[in-house]
Amino acid sequence: MSQFRTRALASVAAAASLSLLLAACGGGEDSDSAAKPTEATKGKVTLEFWSWTDGIEAQTKVWNKEHPETQIKFVNAAGDTAYQKLRAAVNAGTAPCLSKMDGMNLANFAADGLLTDITDVAGQYKGKYTAAAWNAVSPGGTTFGIPMGSSPLFTAYRADLFEKYGIEAPKTWDDLIAAGKKAQKKNKKVKIFNMAGEDPSTLVDLSWESGAQWYKAEDDHWVVDFTSPEALKAGDIVQQLVDNDLASNASYADPGVFKTWDLGTTIAMTTSTWQLPIYNTNFPKSKGKWQLADSPMFDTAKPQTSSNFDTLGVLKGCKYPDRAAEFAAWLSSSKESLTTLTDPASKSGLFPAVTDVSPYVDKIIPTEMFNGESDSAKVITDAASWVGDQWQYGPNYAAMYSEMQKQWGKVMKKEITVKEMLTSIEKWTVDDLNDKGIKAVAGS
Amino acid sequence: MSTLTRPAKVATDSPARRPSPRRAGRRGAYKGVLFTLPFLLGFLATYVVPIGYAFSQSLHEKKSTGLGFGPTRIVYTGFSNFASVLGDGAFWASMGRTLLFGSVQITVMLGIALLLALLLDGVAARAVRFFRAALLIPYVIPAVVSTLMWLFLYSPTGSPLLDLAERAGTEITFFGGLNTYLSLGNLLTWQGIGFNMILISASLQALPRELYEAARLDGAREWRIAWSIKVPNITGILVLTGMFSLIGRLQLFGEPLIMRQIAPESINTDFTPMMEIYDKAFKVGDYQYAAAESLVLAVATGILAFVFYRVTNRKMS
After folding, report:
1. Which string of DSSP letters, residue by residue, matches A193-247?
2. At A370, is the secondary structure helix, strand, or coil?
3. Which residue has the higher pLDDT, A328 or B170?
4. Residue A39: what pLDDT?
5. Is the separation of the CB atoms in A83 and A105 below 8 Å?
6. Which burial class, exposed, middle or buried, applies to A424 when counting CB atoms under 10 A from its CB (0-12, 13-18, 19+)?
7. Confidence of residue B3 (pLDDT cuts 50, 70, 90)
8. What confidence tens digit (pLDDT) does each residue in A319-331 have?
9. What is the CATH number of the domain that holds A280?
């Protein structure tokens, strides 16, 4: 009678939600102190900081030694439910002042009113970071955090197999399609790319690169545009990959996903800095056969890449936002901190979001992975400098992404086209925003 | 284990009428309430309060202002969430998918369980004990572990079964279209056969042996005894296991969620109602809508279980 066991499984989720409830009952003191801070706080303060990046705790100790006025209490919040715990803590009034979060979640938390507006106290740090990174912490033009790391997009490919199939590293996305077809003429089974059925991030990257703007803040409303010429150009590449069966569909959650590349059935991928440290363990058979190249572009004269950002968000109820921002800026931009964090020994996997990354690039490259034929450091530095700064996360990005995930699977199975998906997502997004009381119009 | 192998009393016919309870005095009633207090408190704390909380959540919606970043308001919107759920095509599609899949899978699972129980009923006692224990093993393995085990067997990138098939010169796939349901159904059936068989087997043991002797004297063969005497006398337990399994299927969550790791394009985030609710609450962050969906699912499950019980009971009697 398997319903008992199904229940046992479901109880995992139930336990998670119950813990939310319990947490919600736990605290409750002054959660309404979220006034917009403009002045510097005085005196000695202690603030809590959540992160789950290796090597960060050691850095907070360094900071604490040098800054007796602002003491950081580090909490390792590692776990699958970190964001849920954080949400519960904010609602209970027991949230930390500062927490690690990715750019998408920062926008999501901000939209749910769980962050503190630090536009005024954080402005002085803006110049340290790339424009795209600052965008990531300033959804809708309001700053809610400090950038921590970036992961600009570039390409890794199996140089040995490219040579075998007589193709070269693609400069444009059209080149990639052509190379994929050419390789398949030599070997029917080989795929040039991978698109996971659960993960529309390929489309996000392509759209970001093509200059599309899914969300654009204009005065008091959002212009939602999933069907602009740029967005459709990006969608068309995905469509061609699907139609011509040029991409494998290994799920990134599949334990065997890396075999796809290690055994050479898929021969290229777009990748980023955060993946570099895990190559050595995951590609035992193809070690030394890899080479890095720029991500394929839409316009080689005007190269543009995409990037996810790691950020440090200042949460609602934080009493010392100026100190939190000061510490965050030190952690993510000072030479002292970055030199340690970008050292592979720290295991942080961090790639900075600062304007000049050149001092930190060399150390993060796993040299035994690549054949030494291309300048890996240059590829990474260039990718970081080309991140398009037009991209914005809208206030319902998470809900939109979830909706897109559902349709993305259908696109991969050729049940609907990318264009149909984009058209329906555009309508869905506008309706959902209006439903939440936010003004939005469809773009084109 | 020993408690499981012992034949359990199963209500196949309505038992003799219980003597009407003595009229208890006020003091007695009071004492009775005291005895149930621990249960009542637990029931209140773990069922009534959370359900009440979910209900109050479901009557609200989160609204933003301006560009949507910044403070939000939770406003009372009455039954608007419920109206949305009732008109939510994806939610009802997941319900229909789960029901259709469940009705086929449960029939197969109970059919096999019944067959095995009947076979066991016919063999020697020592063999019975061995087979019962062996068939119960899948049930003893935690569902997450067994799902992961099947996940590795089904994995498009690492499955040894796919390797074998390729060496044999054929290409098979475990997901996509009907295959998705066959793969998932196989997993759930594998997990569920043992336990259901134990229950059916136990109620078979409780049947009076004299019936079989009488039938044999009348010249009935074993299969005839099984079909005409054993099966009609254990319909009670078949209905019960059927109903429990049906409720279990409507709450299907962990197995497809884990399987989604290797077949995301075939098992979508709204594959089952529970997965859809989980996605709304913890991925999208819309607790209010998820609460409304949960309550609708609970009510729909309750109605279905009631109808199922009524219909099957009427047919049997």
Report:
1. EE--TT-THHHHHHHHHHT--SEEEETTEEEE-SSSHHHHHHHHHHHHHHHTT-E
2. strand
3. A328
4. 62
5. yes
6. middle
7. very low
8. 999 999 999 999 9
9. 3.40.190.10
- Residue A317 backbone zone (phi > 0: left; psi -120 to 50: alpha; other: beta): left
Q: Is B81 on the interface with A (CB under 8 A)?
A: no
pLDDT of B15: 46
Q: Which two tokens stand for residue A245?
A: 């069966």
Residues of B in contact with A198 (CB under 8 A): 260, 264-265
Tell me the shortest Cα–Cα distance from A24 to chain B, in angstroms. Answer: 12
Q: What pLDDT does residue A31 have?
A: 36
ipTM of the complex, rounded to two decimals: 0.73
For residue A423, the model assigns a pLDDT of 97
Cβ atoms < 10 Å from Cβ of A434: 14
Regions in chain A scoring below 50 on pLDDT = 1-37
Q: Which long-range contacts (CB under 8 A, 24 or more apart) does A301-304 make?
A: A303/A382, A303/A386, A304/A208, A304/A209, A304/A210, A304/A211, A304/A386, A304/A387, A304/A388
Query: Residue B244: its chain A contacts at CB < 8 A?
Result: 1, 3
Residues 6+ apart with CB under 8 A from A95: A86, A89, A114, A315, A316, A317, A318
Residue range A68-121, pLDDT digits in tens = 999 999 999 988 788 989 998 998 999 999 999 999 999 999 998 999 999 999
Q: Could you say which of A8, A395, A409 has the minimum Cβ distance to residue B69? A: A395
Whether A397 is in a domain gets the answer yes
Decide if B70 and A107 are in contact by the 8 Å CB cutoff.
no
Neighbour tally for B48: CB within 10 Å = 11
Burial class (CB in 10 A: 0-12, 13-18, 19+), B248: buried
Beta-bridged to residue A440, according to DSSP, are A222
Q: Are A284 and A414 part of one and the same domain?
A: yes
B185 and B104 Cβ atoms separated by less than 8 Å = yes
| pLDDT for residue A38 | 55
Pick from A13, A87, A399: which is nearest to B253 by CB? Answer: A13
A352: containing domain: 20-151+309-363
Of B66, B69, B158, Cβ closest to residue A220: B66
Q: Are residues A42 and A176 in the same domain?
A: no
Q: What's the CA dihedral at B118, B122, B127, B129 to 10 degrees?
A: 50
Q: Are residues A129 and A260 in the same domain?
A: no
What average pLDDT does range B126-147 have in this prediction? 86
Instruction: Please give the structure tokens belonging to residue A91.
Output: 């609602």
B80-316 CATH: 1.10.3720.10
Residue B308 pLDDT > 90? no
Q: Which percentage of chain B shows pLDDT scores above 70?
A: 89
**Section B248-255 average pLDDT:** 93
Dist. CA A211–CA A231, nearest whole Å: 8
Instruction: Examine residue A3 and state whether it is found in any structural domain, yes or no.
Output: no
Distance CA(B153)–CA(B161), nearest Å, equals 6
Residues of chain B with C-beta less than 8 angstroms from the C-beta of A251: 261-264
Phi, psi of A313 (to 5 degrees): -90, 145
Confidence of residue B25 (pLDDT cuts 50, 70, 90): low
Closest CB to B157 among A12, A111, A254:
A254
**CA B74 – CA B85 distance, rounded (Å):** 19
